[in-house]
Amino acid sequence: MEELKDTSIHHTALRLAEDVKTMKLYGNLYKMVQKLSCSPEVDKDDMKQTLEAAIKSNGLEIEIRNVIYHLIRNSVKSDTRPTPASSDPLNYLRRAGIQWERRVRKSLNSMCSESKAQLHGQMRTASDREEILSKWDELSTYQIDLSNYRPVYAPKDLLDVLLSLKGPMKQDETDFLPKWEFSHISLTVKNLFELRVHFSELLRNDNNFGDWSVTCQKILKTRHAPLCQQALKKGVTPPPLRGALWSYVLGSHVEQHHVEHWEALRQSVLTNESIVDKLVFKDVQLTATNDDRYFVFEDVLYQIMLCFSRDTEISQLIQVEFTNSAKAKQYEGPPCGFVPFHGICMLAAPFCYLYDNPVSLYYTFRAFYIRYCHRLTTINTHPQGIVSLCLLFEKLLQTHEPQLWSHFRELQIQPIRVVFKWLMRAFSGHLPPEQLLILWDLILGYDSLEILSLLAIIILSFRRESLMQVTSVENIEAILSDLSSVKVLPLIQLTLSRD
């Protein structure tokens, strides 16, 4: 058994070593090791021991450990399985994901045809290029006609598709069982007890903020990503240190190759225009510009989202279930690999509170989107995808708030309809920024989006009395429209500590 274990570790190490060689930072790491090997710290007669000691004493070991940490975390990106279609109970869900992707891309292509615009861009005129360059830091003053453009899709459109999903019926189903919107989907989700175990560290009563701020500073000095992730689990992250902690946890520290890539994206925006640019401007104006908490970031959001839409590395880092079958008509998509939806810029807006430098902001947002947010906007079978989160919400509501559940059913209102926008945008634009950032601390600390479904249930639970007194969707949404009084950490701690 030990031999098998050693062999497995050996092969894993070889695979990781090969993966590191394909990364852009490999060249820099290799040069640093070469430089150390030629330094007086390394004895050529004892190369292995002295080189290892030099790597450790010069802080390079931590950097290498962080690279491996992020490589392992991101190695399982796809939720596809080699299960034969005939025996896969989730095959219909995978097909639905592909059909949704086609539908969205088809809508974008149709919009291109209607407006006679180019999807992948066309050269800007010299005057337009000069104007957008001169207004790069004040893009809110850049004049562009958006009257004929609309979002390709909104959260409601995705929800309607999810609610229409029909999977294989279970043989033991009867008319006496409750008709849940997602109960027929064979995905495994946690119950409240399992959530308590997963988030158990939130229940530790150690919230001395002053001492914790000093501790977080010490953790940052170690530059060790797993320690930074552990620090976020408390939910009391000192605001001045949050940006640095997130950068380590997401592996988004800016290196020279990042700066070069950003500049290439920026140049692409300055020299070429596409229909996606119009959608970006439209989205920012419909959402962030009209939000009292984010309108001041309008200019930087234009920069971030315009570059984001052109970033081909995103499509390479996210494995999308989109078939390349020659039998199916293909529809072109933006360079980033997916079509922007109504409200996508609100996933970037909270990062404006963390970083003054747009490059640092961009790469941390990009890493957050790649690791988490893209699962909220696609139909997928991932344990923390939007379908699983809807199912988790539904089961928690039915099990732990039966009165509310029955009230919704009697009114023939689907409960998921009143919280879906919270889930799809991870509460951005709904919670106050300081509370939203605490929630996202917990997402990063526990590497879990399940906290979104849990918080949605908590909010409904604490407003149960008001919800039980109304009988229309409009009134329910009015009760839930203002979340400014919600305190994320105390509410979650109180719920998890209850018997």
From TrEMBL:
SUPFAM superfamilies tied to this protein: Ypt/Rab-GAP domain of gyp1p
Record-annotated membrane-spanning stretches: none
Alphabetized PROSITE patterns for the sequence: TBC_RABGAP (PS50086)
Domain Rab-GAP TBC residues, every copy: 236-447
Cleaved signal peptide residues: none
Protein name in UniProt: Rab-GAP TBC domain-containing protein
Organism of derivation: Anopheles epiroticus
Lineage: Eukaryota, Metazoa, Ecdysozoa, Arthropoda, Hexapoda
